[in-house]
């Protein structure tokens, strides 16, 4: 194997070294990303496309995109080395393919970021909803009870008080009117 590599032309050796090295780093980066250690740039603006979206080019210059470029450059050079005799044309095509790899990964990352969803619950989202009294709610703000309700397909349980003159028993239906403080609802019988 070593004899075969040593017998290759110098340009083809360089393409093989670039292609294999970039492939190894790419596989390591991908594995780290899937196990949750995806920030392999050590603070060098890993997969950020913020700069790309605001018109600047800062998001394009990252270690990950360098690896993407070298991946396209190296493998296109290896595959086309014997087919293209003009070396300047080969290098130009390899650079073009490397840039296509960077563009493809940036576009793919942008599309994946659009799929991101904020699943956190905000108290204001429950205003106007009907809830079930889980623990009785004393009348006229004389104590706190609990209500259960569903937002975005998940069930939440929160403290509740009422201005109603009568206690709201467990199992009754109420309307959420207002958020009191950060974690309590003002409710009324529905």
Which keywords apply here?
single chain; 190 residues; alpha+beta; five-stranded mixed beta barrel; 5 strands; rod-shaped
Average pLDDT confidence is 85
**Share of β-strand residues:** 15-25%
Q: Please identify the structural class as seen in this structure.
A: alpha+beta
Overall shape: rod-shaped
Q: Could you give the distance between the termini?
A: 80 Å
Element-level helix/strand string: HHHHHEEEEE
> Low-confidence segments, ≥5 residues, pLDDT <50?
40-56
Largest sheet: 5 strands, mixed, barrel
From the alpha-carbon coordinates, what is the Rg to the nearest angstrom?
A: 30 Å
Strand arrangement across the biggest beta sheet = 1-2-3-5-4
Q: How helix-rich are the residues, as a percent range?
A: 40-55%
Number of helices: 5
The total beta strand count reads 5
Topology:
Blueprint (H helix, E strand, L loop, with lengths): L1 H5 L3 H25 L15 H4 L9 H18 L6 H28 L15 E6 L9 E7 L2 E9 L10 E8 L3 E6 L1
Parallel strand pairs: 3-5
Antiparallel strand pairs: 1-2, 1-4, 2-3, 4-5
Give an overview in words.
The protein is an alpha+beta fold and 190 residues long. Helix content is 42%, strand content 19%. The chain has a 5-stranded mixed beta barrel. Strand 4 and strand 5 form a beta hairpin. Helix 4 crosses helix 5. The longest helix is centred in the middle third of the chain and has 28 residues.
Question: What's a concise summary of this model?
Answer:
The protein has 190 residues and is of the alpha+beta class. The chain contains five helices and five strands.
């Amino acid at each position: 194997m070593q004899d075969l590599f040593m017998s290759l032309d110098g340009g083809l050796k360089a393409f093989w070294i670039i292609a294999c090295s970039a492939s190894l780093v790419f596989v390591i980066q991908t594995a780290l990303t899937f196990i949750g250690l995806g920030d392999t740039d050590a603070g060098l603006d890993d997969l950020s496309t913020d700069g790309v979206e605001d018109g600047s080019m800062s998001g394009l210059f990252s270690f990950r995109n360098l690896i993407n470029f070298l991946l396209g450059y190296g493998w296109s050079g290896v595959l086309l080395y014997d087919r293209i005799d003009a070396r300047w044309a080969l290098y130009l095509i390899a650079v073009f393919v490397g840039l296509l790899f960077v563009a493809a990964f940036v576009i793919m990352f942008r599309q994946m970021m659009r799929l991101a969803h904020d699943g956190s619950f905000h108290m204001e989202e429950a205003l106007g909803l009907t809830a079930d009294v889980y623990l009785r709610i004393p009348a006229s703000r004389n104590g706190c009870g609990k209500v259960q309700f569903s937002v975005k397909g998940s069930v939440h349980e929160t403290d509740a008080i009422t201005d109603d003159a009568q206690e709201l028993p467990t199992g009754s239906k109420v309307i959420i009117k207002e958020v009191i403080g950060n974690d309590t609802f003002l409710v009324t019988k529905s």
